[in-house]
Design brief:
This protein has about 180 residues and is an alpha/beta fold. The chain contains six helices and seven strands, in the order H-E-E-H-E-H-E-H-E-H-E-E-H.
């Protein structure tokens, strides 16, 4: 067991990741209601010897934190600017790297948000990579990734599929009252 796994074990968490490890994919993670979601998810993925990139507000990439965030796989997201440009640059990054697992939280915030962000579906479809569906289940203290799908290109249909997948996980959230599909 590596350091990441030991940290999770000490905190009483388990990892149930049964999907195949891929060189390129989007890892969709929900519910996202706590700042603890990030370190728990990071430890779980790293405990298996995997690395993932993640999108985070540019605000967190200040000196000296920017070096840690980048080393952990962080990609800064500007607070203002064209979302289409970010989507395009990430699709291009998938094309130019041999390995890229990108973790995203479609809610985009830890607050209750019925309108989930759809950019990860545009990225997955444009980069021709699958989406793996992950859950950080506080109720059972388990990080789960058991399912994946290939986006169809019909963003509304794909988002309905994703939300339907996460609907039973309301009680998995650290703060269930903040989670909605």
């Amino acid at each position: 067991m590596n350091l990441w796994g030991k940290l999770l074990h000490l905190a009483g968490w388990r990892v149930d990741i049964s999907v195949p490890h891929l060189s390129k994919c989007i890892i969709c993670v929900a519910p996202h209601t706590s700042n603890w979601d990030f370190p728990i998810g990071l430890c779980a993925y790293r405990s298996l010897g995997y690395k993932a990139n993640f999108l985070m507000k540019e605000f967190w990439f200040f000196w000296p934190m920017k070096y840690l965030m980048r080393a952990l796989g962080g990609i800064p997201v500007p607070s203002r600017g064209s979302k289409g440009e970010l989507t395009k640059s990430i699709i291009e990054a998938f094309g130019s790297h041999d390995y890229m697992n990108l973790a995203v939280t479609p809610e985009g915030t830890r607050s209750r948000q019925p309108s989930w962000r759809r950019g990860f579906l545009f990225i997955a479809y444009g980069a021709k990579v699958p989406v793996q569906l992950g859950v950080i289940d506080y109720k059972s203290k388990t990080v789960i990734i058991r399912d994946s799908f290939i986006p169809s290109g019909d963003i509304d249909k794909d988002m309905a599929y994703v939300k339907n997948y996460y609907a039973p996980y309301r009680d998995a959230a650290k703060y269930p009252e903040k989670f909605t599909v």
